[in-house]
Amino acid sequence: MTNNEEFTDEIGNNHIATNEQTPLRKDAFEKTDEEKIELIKKDVENILFTLGMDLTDDSLKGTPNRVAKMFVKEIFGGLNPNKKPSSSTFDNKYKYNEMLVEKNITVYSTCEHHLLPIVGRAHIAYISNGTVVGLSKMNRVVDYFAKRPQVQERLTIQIVKELQKVLNTENVACIIDAKHLCVNSRGIRDIESSTVTAEFGGKFKDDVVRREFLDYIKLDTNF
To answer: Is 182 marked within a binding site?
Structure first.
């Protein structure tokens, strides 16, 4: 391999993030979902054919179409800005000014380096600056940014920045604890390890506030 190829492989094999924004081309949404499905279907057919699979077998006949629809409509659906959750908020009329924590939000994402699953839990907290969101809003934000080829550090940052914008406050924090199947099922094949990432904004940069959040979610760490 050339030095450039080795460098690119090193980034991918070590799961290194290079950008906090999802790397999308300017023409990413010029094709319709249906057009993308047809193109991806042909690519999946070619992959399976190249691997030596018999695509006339009843079990495999529909696989290219199923995979293409899954990519566009499901596991990478968060790439489409039209699917972004609405950003409605409510006045904090009951004047709750303490920390609000939503923990154990399910994370299903896909590692952009090997296109294998990332599975885990997200824990989110915020301190109101006059507005609040419905509890399900935080789940939807996690789901939206998770449904794209991802790096866990980027996912954590994107969740916090989106909620900071929606809530009009810097006082938002997110911790994700997840297993990466590209680590668990290939390479070193360590099925026990998980990756923990955190992003703290505003008051959560204070040691006391951050420790309170960690105590709520029962996470023993030195963040």
So the answer is: yes
Kindly report, residue by residue over 91-113, the tens digit of the pLDDT: 776 666 789 999 999 999 999 99
Contacts of 22 (CB under 8 A, 6+ apart): 79, 148, 149, 150, 154, 158
Q: What is the pLDDT of residues 18-63, one digit of tens each?
A: 678 999 999 999 999 999 999 999 999 999 999 999 999 999 999 9
Residue 111 labeled ligand binder = yes
- What pairs with residue 40 in β-bridges? none
Specify the DSSP class assigned to residue 85.
P
List b or e across 81-98, with b for residues whose CB sees 16 or more CB atoms inside 10 angstroms: eeeebeeeeeeeeeeeee
64 close to 37: Cβ distance less than 8 angstroms:
no
Q: Compute the half-sphere exposure of residue 113: CA atoms within 13 Å on the CB side of its CA.
A: 20
Distance (Å, rounded) from C-alpha 75 to C-alpha 132?
A: 29
Whether the model pTM is above 0.70: yes
> Strand, coil or helix: what is 166?
helix
15 is in an annotated binding site: no
In the predicted structure, residue 2 carries a pLDDT above the cut 70: no
Catalytic sites, residue numbers = 111-114, 152, 180, 182
Positive or negative, the CA dihedral 147, 150, 152, 157 is: negative
